[in-house]
């Protein structure tokens, strides 16, 4: 379970361009459910996602994971939590060009020191699950948008995280590919995986795969 | 331990893949770096080998050479000096030597004429150095004539050509019989060019030199150690001169390598951001980049050093030989014995690989400590 208590995030604090991206967010995210953060651009969805996913620390307030306050942990510990607990699917997919799909998928597992053979087998099975086995050796820049997203999802799952975080997962996909993503989302829900995503795409937030929608505006939660 | 090793293996795998992805840049970097090491290592290896060679040659030379001076100039040793030396304790062996220089207008070069201490050369014959064989086109049993300083022509037969292995010291050497030498240079009987002295105890050399100076006040004892030092300083000077001449080019290459190595491209920064976001620690990123820098610089160092070694010891250092070796007019051709000085390698390594690693470390560290959330907002 992830809990946020009165969380604020201020960028450029103390400078003339100080900007509060989040103000006083309190939110509890239940495990094994798909939660969507909905809101217009600039509402603070992505910033909230970065705090939940241990990519950044809040300016004030607390973020706790399974009852343990993680908001004040040093970077090294946050990295470890991020690697073990969260898998990320970025809006631009953020795959590393020039490397194959398989190599990209294995990247988050490199610091774990798991044997190469084991990692390769795991990456291969994820590709198979996402119906992408035939593209494992292809360089990521040769893949279509949908294929790239599936590679990004496989990469997010390589360390078998409890929580999958997806930022605007359908923003770069057409309707058919967005529906394919929703099918995957449904599967994650059935598997009991916790999924937190941001989206303002009605196709996503209104789908049956999403269990809960949190509306945001101007850095605050406006309704659930 | 196993996990740590696997981690390093993954980092190296990723590093190699990274290097392959930026082939042109990295190959360029290796080429510039290797060239830099090649130039420095060539100069160092060549001068070190020369020093080594000179030392080896001088090892068999006499401990003390005694010359006589008149008005500060080298003059002939008159009769009686050898007897005076004979009374100085500690002198194991003494021998008057006969040698001199001869300018050959045919090839416009100076030769060193000498009577070998052990004798054994028949009157009317010569033993010549390999350079003479080359320059005058002579071989064994050929006739050769020299006009002496008083205009008289002397004809000789070449009995033997000295082996090439000794060419560093024997290139321009002409060995002849004592009677021929005295006749050719009009040397008075009983006079010598200088005296070679063998001293049994190396610790006594300086004392004996002092005794000689006292017993024969118009003489100058020259110690073998002093000659060795002179050689060493001469090669040091040449090495320094060469490096000074090359310093502008070296500096330009160094700046180029620094510039190329220390700048991270936008793509590299983006990659570092992605790696951090997906769970790589700052330390992992730095380690990976250090592996990258290490592989580039070590490869370049090895390539440069091996190329320099090949250039110096297999191809006779065509690039630097004229400046570094230097000789009289006739250049000796000789095979340098391959010698590597561990300290020299370490010095070169320290002044090339270490600055490179330092150059890459700061920008990597700066990129690696950026917040991983930057990648979300990109």
Summarize the structure.
With 224 residues, chain A is α/β, with parallel strands linked by helices.
Overview features:
heterodimer, A: 224 residues, alpha/beta, 7 helices, 26% strand, B: alpha+beta, Barwin-like endoglucanases, ten-stranded mixed beta sheet, 13 helices
User: What is the mean predicted local confidence, pLDDT of chain A?
Assistant: 90
How many individual helices of chain B?
13
Distance between the termini of chain A: 18 Å
Proper CATH architecture of chain A: 3-Layer(aba) Sandwich
Helix content of chain B: 55-70%
- The total domain count of chain B is 2
- Which regions of chain A are unreliable across 5 or more consecutive residues at pLDDT < 50? none
- Kindly estimate the percentage of residues of chain A that lie in beta strands according to DSSP: 25-35%
N-to-C CA distance of chain B: 37 Å
* Number of E strands of chain A: 10
N-to-C order of helices and strands of chain A: EEEHEEHEHHHEHEHEE
**CATH fold-level name of chain A:** Rossmann fold
Walkthrough of the structure:
The complex is a heterodimer of chains A (224) and B (378). Chain A is an alpha/beta fold and 224 residues long. In chain A, 33% of the residues lie in helices and 26% in strands. Chain A has a single domain, classed as P-loop containing nucleotide triphosphate hydrolases (Rossmann fold, 3-Layer(aba) Sandwich). Chain A has 7 helices and 10 strands. The longest helix of chain A has 17 residues, at 175-191. With 378 residues, chain B is an alpha+beta fold. Chain B has 2 domains: 2-58 and 230-377, no CATH class; 92-192, Beta Barrel (Barwin-like endoglucanases). In chain B, helix 10 runs antiparallel to helix 12. Classes of the chains: A alpha/beta (224), B alpha+beta (378). Chains A and B meet through helix 1 and helix 2 of A and helix 1, helix 9, helix 10 and helix 13 of B.
């Amino acid at each position: 379970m992830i809990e946020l208590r009165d969380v604020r995030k201020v960028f450029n604090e103390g400078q003339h361009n100080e900007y509060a991206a989040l103000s006083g967010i309190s939110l509890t995210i239940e495990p094994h459910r798909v939660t969507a953060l909905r809101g217009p651009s600039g509402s603070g969805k992505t910033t909230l996602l970065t705090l939940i996913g241990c990519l950044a620390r809040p300016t004030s307030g607390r973020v706790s994971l399974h009852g343990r306050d993680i908001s004040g942990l040093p970077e090294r510990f946050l990295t470890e939590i991020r690697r073990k607990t969260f898998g990320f699917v970025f809006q631009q997919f953020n795959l590393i060009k020039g490397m194959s799909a398989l190599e990209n998928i294995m990247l988050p597992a490199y610091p774990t020191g798991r044997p190469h053979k084991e990692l390769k087998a795991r990456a291969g099975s994820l590709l198979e699950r996402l119906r992408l086995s035939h593209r494992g050796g292809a360089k990521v820049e040769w893949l279509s948008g949908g294929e790239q997203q599936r590679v990004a999802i496989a990469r997010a799952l390589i360390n078998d995280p409890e929580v999958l975080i997806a930022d605007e997962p359908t923003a770069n996909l057409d309707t058919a590919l967005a529906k394919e993503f929703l099918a995957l989302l449904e599967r994650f829900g059935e598997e009991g995986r916790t999924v937190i995503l941001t989206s303002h795409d009605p196709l996503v937030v209104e789908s049956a795969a999403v269990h809960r929608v949190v509306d945001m505006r101007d850095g605050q939660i406006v309704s659930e | 331990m196993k996990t740590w090793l696997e981690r390093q293996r993954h980092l190296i795998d990723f590093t190699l893949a990274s290097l392959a992805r930026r082939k042109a840049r990295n190959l360029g970097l290796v080429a510039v770096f290797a060239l830099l090491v090649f130039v420095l290592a060539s100069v160092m290896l060549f001068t070190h080998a020369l020093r080594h060679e000179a030392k080896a040659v001088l090892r068999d030379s006499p401990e003390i050479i005694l010359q006589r001076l008149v008005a500060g100039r080298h003059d002939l040793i008159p009769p009686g000096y050898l007897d005076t030396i004979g009374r100085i304790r500690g002198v194991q062996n003494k021998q008057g030597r006969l040698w001199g220089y001869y300018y050959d207008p045919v090839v416009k070069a100076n030769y060193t004429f000498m009577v070998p201490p052990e004798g054994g050369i028949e009157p009317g014959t010569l033993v010549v150095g390999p350079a003479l064989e080359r320059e005058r086109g002579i071989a064994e049993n050929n006739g050769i004539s020299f006009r002496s300083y008083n205009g008289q022509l002397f004809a000789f037969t070449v009995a033997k050509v000295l082996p090439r292995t000794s060419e560093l010291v024997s290139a321009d050497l002409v060995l002849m019989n004592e009677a021929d030498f005295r006749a050719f240079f009009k040397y008075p009987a009983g006079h010598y060019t200088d005296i070679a002295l063998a001293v049994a105890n190396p610790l006594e050399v300086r004392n004996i030199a002092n005794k000689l100076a006292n017993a024969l006040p118009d003489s100058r004892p020259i110690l073998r150690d002093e000659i060795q030092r002179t050689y060493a300083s001469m090669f040091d000077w040449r090495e320094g001169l060469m490096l000074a001449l090359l310093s502008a080019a070296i500096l330009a290459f160094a700046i180029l390598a620094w510039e190329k190595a220390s700048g991270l491209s936008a793509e590299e920064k983006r990659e570092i951001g992605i790696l951090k976001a997906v769970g790589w620690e700052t330390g992992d990123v730095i380690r990976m980049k250090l592996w990258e820098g290490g592989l580039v610089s070590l490869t370049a160092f090895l390539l440069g050093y091996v190329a320099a070694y090949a250039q110096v010891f297999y191809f006779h250092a065509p690039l630097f030989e004229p400046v570094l070796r230097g000789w009289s007019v006739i250049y000796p051709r000789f095979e340098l014995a391959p010698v590597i000085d561990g300290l020299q390698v370490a010095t070169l390594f320290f002044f090339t690989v270490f600055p490179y690693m330092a150059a890459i470390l700061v920008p990597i560290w700066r990129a690696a400590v950026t917040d991983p959330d930057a990648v979300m907002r990109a």
